[in-house]
Amino acid sequence: MDLLQDSRHTMWGLNARLKGFLEQVNRLQQANQRLEAQIADWSARSTSRSRDWSQQENTVQELRVQVGNLLMENAQLALQSDSMKSRAADIQARCETEERNTRRLERQVVLLRESKAKADRSSVTLQADLRHSMSNLQEMHQEFEAARALQLQRAGSCDVLLATARAAAVARGE
């Protein structure tokens, strides 16, 4: 939005300068017409002198044409200058916008790198916890298997004792 407002402001400034310049050209043309009228009036009054002013009038006319051409050239140069200033302002605004975006992205990269480092540290910790848990699970499994084997062994000896006790009871006649 800033760029659009800057462009509008620049265009408004250019239009104001052009208007001022055109007003100056009009004032100069009016002054020139007054001078031409005075010269024509003076030459009409002084025709009685019968002096030949045609060469001077030709010179004056050529000078007027040159002045008009120079005024137009000056106006074109002023417009070109304003156009270049406007382009420079646009480029400056774009450059500033890009610099702000670059700084914002650089901050995001730093934050992402910090997040990645934190995630890496967390991963290492979780992997160590997993290895420790796996080791504990294996130990528990071994203890379970040992307890089960002991229980099966005891169950087998209980069966032998029961069988012996039954055999003794049968032998006694019970």
Automatic annotation (TrEMBL):
**Stretches of the chain forming a coiled coil according to its record:** 18-45, 88-115
Instruction: Tell me if DNA repair is a UniProt keyword of this record.
Output: no
- Domain of life according to the entry: Eukaryota
Instruction: Tell me where the signal peptide lies.
Output: none
Which keywords appear in this protein's UniProt record, sorted alphabetically? Coiled coil, Intermediate filament
Establish whether keyword ATP-binding is in the entry: no
IF rod domain residues = 7-174
Any one cellular-component term (Gene Ontology): intermediate filament
* Protein's name according to its UniProt entry: IF rod domain-containing protein
What is the native source organism of this protein? Gasterosteus aculeatus (Three-spined stickleback)
Lineage, uppermost ranks: Eukaryota, Metazoa, Chordata, Craniata, Vertebrata
